[in-house]
Amino acid sequence: MAAITEEHLIESIADALQFISYYHPGDFVQAMTAAWEREENKGAKDAMAQILVNSRMCAIGHRPICQDTGAANIHIKVGVEAPLKLKRSLQEIADEGTRQGYARDTNPLRASVVVDPFGSRKNSGDNTPCMLTVEMVAGDSVEVEVAAKGGGSENKSKFTTLNPSGNVADWVVETVETLGAGWCPPGVLGIGVGGNADKVMAMAKQALSEPLDMQELLRRGPSNNVEELRVEIYERVNALGIGAQGLGGVTTVLDVKVKSWPTHAASLPVGLIPNCAATRHVHFTLDGSGPATFTPPAVEDYPDIVLDAAGAQSRKLDLDDLNDEVVASLTPGETLLLSGTLYTGRDAAHKRMIDMMDRGEELPVDLNRKAIYYVGPVDAVGDEAIGPAGPTTSTRMDKFTDRILADTGLKVMVGKAERGQIGLDAIAKHDAAYLIAVGGAAYLVSKAIKDAKPVAFEDLGMEAIYELQVQDMPVTVAVDTQGNSIHRSGPAEWKKKIAERA
User: Fold this and answer.
1) Terminal-to-terminal C-alpha distance of the chain
2) Do 131 and 167 reside in the same domain of the chain?
């Protein structure tokens, strides 16, 4: 039997990371399409339409589904009889595959991994090291699961240890209700039950790569305790009314996947990890015959959705004319098309600006009556002005918001998901507004960006401040100048509607 070599693993992992950067799994597209067809809330339905159109565009253009091309999660099952010809450790080999996958010139992927989590948080520059787990199993082949996990959904991971008599479904539903929309619903919930703390979280992560079959399960009905738990959580979470992007609606989760393991008699560990609308994973097997090959989905597998390109139902907003009257006229739930100058800025840029203001230094950009976009884009290729550039989770900027609004005169922020109470208070205090772009539609959003140039903090890489020129960039008003939030009113309205039907 031919040997399985380092080169087989490296090339396969690199190709897999490229493949999943622009191809959603087919079952995910099917589940999202079915949810889009069922959705009753127009705002949520439009958000899902953008996600599906973006998915099709990425499949055709071979560009990332999301600007957060994720940390590389690699799980390798090594057959105990597999004929391996390796000199380096599996971590080193998987890291080399990750390095090559993320640095490909034709489709460079965003490097998001920082090597020092405590101090400088310096970016590794190539997205290594990958997050590797290894398992020895029976057999003579090597099975590999490659996934790219974005920070927005990973940050919402939760763990608890219930009493043995505790109710898993109750804990999951109560926890999901507190997560907000930062994990970019609708997506998938991975749940582990049993084992211990590390085992249960590993199971929750592995569950996310299982096939999506909830609609089939609902048609035939559950046949065991695990399937009953899946259905119960699916129905109860969707009854929360959170909806796509947290706008309110009938679908918050597309599927619920559960894995379990024996546990201590005194314990009931439960792990919860959500996967976002940029769910990305692929599985392959190596047997010594060479690197893995991947079969792309057919374009016909994607729904044929035509977005309202002319924006007939959307109001146009000139970002170069943000006077108080215009900003005050924005209402939660209203859809807008933005044109004009839009600056970028995330956590690191906000912190650096505040440090400069504390020292009495002049900022490198004038944000007075301007708008800022919370984004860390992918590098451009070819004639692109910018690579995929979807929004990041805005709550991370809440602690900076009051100072930035007070000292710079900034009037509008654009990001994704809800704002916390600190952010809402600051927005109302300074008569500003907060808008959201659709998380999971990064390539689509980037097409509205006609020019991009770095203007400050270039050493921060993807967290540098860019000056963008946008034309008809689609967004939704999330928070008005009074602090009223669509992420509160929308889910509350749809939770009530769903309950009245029950």
Assistant:
1) 60
2) no
